[in-house]
Specification:
The longest helix has 37 residues. This protein has 113 residues and is an all-alpha fold. The chain folds into 2 domains: 79 residues; 34 residues, no CATH class. The protein is 65% helix and 0% strand. It has 4 helices and no strands. It is elongated and about 60 Å long.
Length: 113
């Protein structure tokens, strides 16, 4: 398996996520609307949008943590090995999700447990 290919992919994803997080910081801030000039529904819409932006940001941050862990596994030589059973993770699975920590069998078992 060519870990350099996966490392390049992970670094590209990391940069992309960091750029998106940086550009979205101001949009996820506290909603402040003047109630006298903006209706109650507009404020509720703004608060809902804020909540959705905050959740998207949380997910991006989790993805960044997953990418960092995958890069650490590449550096340590453990990349591509299932953390549960120690078997090789299918390369096609890693191509779809380069941060995968478990083989398909262990992942299925852990999801149903």
């Amino acid at each position: 398996m060519d870990t350099e290919q996966f490392k390049a992919l992970l670094l590209q994803q990391q940069k992309s996520l960091m750029d998106v997080l940086e550009s979205g910081k101001s949009a996820a801030g506290t909603v402040k609307l003047d109630q006298t000039s903006v209706g109650r529904l507009s404020r509720m819409d703004a608060m809902q949008s804020q909540a959705m932006l905050q959740e998207a940001s949380r997910r991006r941050q989790q993805s960044l943590r997953d990418i960092s862990k995958a890069l650490a596994r590449i550096d340590s030589g453990d990349y591509g090995l299932c953390e549960e059973c120690g078997e090789q993770i299918a390369e096609k699975r890693l191509q779809i999700n380069p941060t995968a920590r478990y083989c398909i069998e262990c992942s299925s078992k852990l999801e149903t447990a």
